[in-house]
SNF2 N-terminal domain-containing protein (Daedalea quercina L-15889), 128 residues
Amino acid sequence: EGMEEIKWLSGVEEYQDVNMDTLWAYIGRQKEWSIPFFNTKEAVTGTFNPWFEDSIKAMVHDNTIPLTLCWHQLVSIIKMVDNILHGHPTLLMDSVGIGKTMQVIGLICILAYFHEYYDKHHQFPSKY
């Protein structure tokens, strides 16, 4: 009682009109459209375990589809990179599911990629 309802914003308003091509370019992955160190395919049936050699071989030929990120997943990773580089905290708030876990793992992979990229080129990719 007496508490006002908080109207939350998305937290990514600055990116609301940015398309996927540009988002991938921001992290230097405009050619690959993938997160480094992530699988690039997933099994349609869900019966393959990508940690086993026989499953990896089977996924080359069997019923697989590309493993792609949705706009909101990619933009959240970019926003987390922005926040880290500017010393700002981040709170992921969304419905229950595995999306937020994937986003945090994606962030870790992007930071590892940035580390390797910086070692090789002495700068970060694209907008960073």
